Amino acid sequence: MYKILFITLTFLITAQTKILAQQKSTYIKAGLLYDSKSNTLLKNKLIEIQGERIIAITDFKTLPKTQQVIDLSEYTVLPGLIDAHTHVLFFQEAQEDFAEHSVHSLTMESDALRVLRGSKRAKSYVDQGITSIKDLGNSGIYLDVSLRDAINEGSILGPRIFASGPILAAEGGQIYGVLPEHQDIIGLEYRIISGPEDAKNAVNEHVNQNVDVIKICADNIPNKTYLTVDEIKSVVNTAHAYHLKVTAHSITNQSAWNAIEAGVDGIEHGFNLADSTLVKMAEKNIYLVPTENSRAYMDTYAKLAGYNPNELGWIDGYMKKKKDRLHRAIDIGVPIVAGSDNYTDIKVSRGESSKDMFRYYAEAGMKPLDILQSSTYISAVHLNKTNDIGYIAPQAYADIIAVKGDLIHNFITTINSVVFVMKGGDVYINTTD
Known about the structure:
Number of helices: 15
Structural class: alpha/beta
């Protein structure tokens, strides 16, 4: 009996070894290769791929004619881009109120419809060279996890999704104005926390549903409720025990300070951060996702929302304030992670809307390679995923894109000129021929 079992196992192992040995490599010739870890551009590199993973990075060499070669020697090759703040299962029109639309979505839009619409949005990220997203709630009851699983199994096309499940929040969540007798609606979109022990339970529930990251609301503006420091500490301690990162939505400086004191790994938005808070973030290596938009986006939004053209002076002040906050964060040493938070319909695809964040960072004065690093390697570091995404290196997923143009001197045009997209070794776009 044991002899037969041993022979069978030996046969299977030998067969698997032969299959791997016979598996042909695909090679990509990169004229310029962006090394996202060192934040440099390297000339004439050869990427060897087997299956869904990268095997080796070498210099150009003579290849056997039998091997498949993708010639990108006239282009700049990058890791697949990462948008670290998305809501792929949520959208609203520019003129709509967030709370009203949320209630409408929860009561008049089925889960199936939300997922089907979300799947179309998901594909649009890949079309733009964004091969991974960190999706942070407003996704019903784990619909983001279901969408992630459907993509991973190949049922639909989309980016790698790192899903948070329902946002953990204090009473009322971010949906304001709901009458007391209808507060149960909010539980369809948020996990409401009632004390440190319940916070621990909430994380356990999320872990049981196989989420990838935990998101909390450190404040619920315009609702007045917020999580206490002890509640956030309970979330963080429990999540970290499961090796999950915790990121915190924060509008006010005080809520960010509370979240930082409680040990979170990241701050989302952080619109009103004081220098003292930024210093604390730098000391603790807590990242910031500045979710801002370009001037062109803001003008489009204002037009669609129906603003009076003579009443748009606030946009200049808003953008100056956010530019100042971004530069203070960079100068103090806070890690910057690129994220869009674009869920408003501005009459382009969600993926195209997402890439507006690159225009904002460029307009705010970030250097091109620093913007790229924030949307690749640094983002992967803070997801604990540098072995898989955000870096073209041996054993990482073959999530690789190529762009046409000069990234250093013509960044926006070039980053929007995606000519090649590979995800997990499969080519989805190739317009180089």
